[in-house]
Design brief:
Elements: E1 5-12, H1 16-27, E2 33-36, E3 41-43, H2 48-51, E4 62-64, H3 65-68, E5 74-76, E6 80-84, E7 89-92, E8 97-105, E9 110-111, H4 119-122, E10 128-129, H5 134-146, E11 150-156, H6 168-180, E12 187-193, H7 202-215, E13 218-220, E14 224-229, E15 234-239, E16 242-247, E17 250-254, E18 257-258, H8 261-265, E19 277-278, E20 292-294, E21 299-300, H9 307-326, E22 337-342, E23 348-353, H10 373-389
Parallel strand pairs: 1-2, 1-8, 2-5, 8-20, 10-17, 11-12, 11-17, 12-13, 19-21
Antiparallel strand pairs: 3-4, 6-7, 7-8, 9-18, 14-15, 15-16, 22-23
Helix pairs in contact: 1-9, 5-6
Bound molecules: flavin-adenine dinucleotide (FAD).
Residues 12-18, 36-39, 45-46, 48-49, 79-80, 106-108, 131-132, 162-163, 166, 260, 296-298, 305-308, 338, 340 line the site of flavin-adenine dinucleotide.
Length: 397
């Protein structure tokens, strides 16, 4: 048997995590880096919230994949179907087998429609939508902006949802729009949040609750959407007090996510990691296979998944690959994550926190947890070019 082609560092998934790590490892001097990424179009997913808020288009967030893969990094186009951690081999759908010195597993997560029976059917109707799928993001704003009376229900899950508080962006931009167009009083706005809090930063939480109160939004926390009936336009809710049903004229969903099935089928998950890559949340090293690393939305890192979290995770994995090879001390990821949330069409706040819910602001010069116009302009217009030109090239810190 011939041995498979091998790469010094092999990365599964060329999204935010995979390309940032590829760029970083290349910049650190590794000459043989390869990425497996089947999608020919790379999307900057944070802008999906702005598409769903009528403030961006899909074209604004899309670039040809080959234009953004860092120079010198080889790309494989066939998707991964399994990983053999014992033999250190990755199997691709086209039959290719790849070996590796170190392997980074970062294929992201996917919407889990099975977790909410009826939700998939509902988003196929004009009365329900989500910003979490590119094909539905523009429809979300069409639905919300067309509403002039009735009940709008915004349901934000937290089960593995990437950066779940950004599910509040369409809510606050829509309520601002309804107020400006004089129909807010005719719309009953209900926010259903699975988490006990809107966001894991007490100061940002206070600001968001104040904004919601100003718009007259009714909030239910610790409440899960159990199922949706698209015909009756109702959602069945599991609240701390029992089961309830709510009617909707417009339903926005930030739906639960799950890991790609091949992670667990390849033995890279454990019962505790719920199908996600079982890594040490500090070092990001796999719990069973020391040459395997996990980061991004696909990894069980005991912190809220977000693009901002990758600014900390990518350098940790890059350095720990070196540390493992040299036998030196490893670095730790502290669970930092970030959620930028609009409070209107013109203002945004930034919630930054670690895995203990301790605020971890990037700067103390200004209070980023207060809504500001400058923050919205940064998030909408400056962050995307930074993503394309710097973050994806591994210039992450
Ligand atoms: C609507 C929305 C809004 C968001 N807003 C924000 C925000 O404002 N701020 C923020 O910090 N974060 C935000 N996020 C979260 C952020 O986008 C993610 O945390 C980040 O993209 C995670 O990067 P990743 O590389 O782990 O996953 P992804 O970016 O999903 O990339 C995974 C890649 O793996 C590839 N892949 C999948 N399966 C396979 C396979 N079998 N073989 C090979 N490749 C595979 C996919 O094609 C994809 O390119 C948002 C996310 C969404 C969906």
């Amino acid at each position: 048997m011939s041995s498979p082609r091998a790469h010094d560092v092999l990365i599964l998934g060329g999204g935010n995590a995979g390309l940032s790590l590829a760029g970083r490892v290349r910049r650190d001097g590794c000459r043989d880096v390869a990425v497996v990424e089947p999608k020919d179009v790379h999307q900057y997913r944070p802008l999906l919230s702005y598409v769903a808020s009528g403030m961006a288009t899909l074209a604004d967030l899309s670039r040809p994949q080959d234009d953004v893969v860092p120079d010198g990094v080889r790309r494989y186009r066939s998707p991964v179907v399994s990983v053999d951690g014992e033999r250190s081999i990755v199997h691709l759908a086209d039959g290719t087998e790849l070996g590796y010195g170190d392997l980074a597993v970062c294929p992201g997560s996917e919407v889990d429609w099975d977790a909410i029976p009826g939700a998939r059917e509902a988003v196929g109707t004009p009365s329900a939508s989500t910003s979490y799928l590119p094909e539905l993001a523009a429809k979300t704003w069409a639905m919300l902006s067309a509403l002039t009376s009735g009940r709008a229900v915004f349901a934000v899950a937290s089960r593995h949802v990437p950066c779940f508080p950004v599910g509040l962006k369409p809510l606050f931009v829509a309520t601002d729009h309804w107020r400006r167009t004089g129909v807010l009083d005719a719309i009953d706005v209900e926010l259903v949040v699975e988490s006990p809090r809107l966001v894991d930063d007490p100061r940002a939480e206070r600001e968001l609750l104040a904004a919601a109160q100003e718009y007259g939004v009714r909030i239910r926390t610790s409440t899960t959407v159990e199922s949706v009936d698209a015909t009756d336009r109702t959602a069945r809710l599991r609240t701390p007090h029992g089961v309830d049903t709510t009617h909707y004229d417009a339903l926005y969903l930030a739906p639960p996510h799950r890991a790609p099935g091949w992670i667990a089928q390849s033995g890279l998950a454990t019962a505790e990691s719920d199908g996600f890559v079982a890594v040490d949340p500090g070092t990001l090293q796999h719990r069973t296979f020391p040459r395997v690393w996990g980061l991004g939305d696909a990894a069980a890192v005991d912190a809220m998944p977000s693009g901002g979290a990758l600014r900390r995770q990518v350098p940790v994995v890059a350095r720990n690959i070196q540390a493992r090879r040299k036998g030196t001390a490893m670095q730790q990821y502290d669970g930092y994550s970030v959620a930028p949330v609009t409070t209107s069409r013109s203002e945004l706040l930034l919630a930054e926190f670690d895995r203990e819910r301790r605020p971890e602001p990037t700067t103390r010069l200004v209070d980023l947890a207060r809504p500001r116009r400058s923050l919205l302009l940064f998030d909408r217009y400056l962050q995307p070019p930074i993503y394309w030109r710097r973050l994806l090239q591994g210039k992450v810190s």
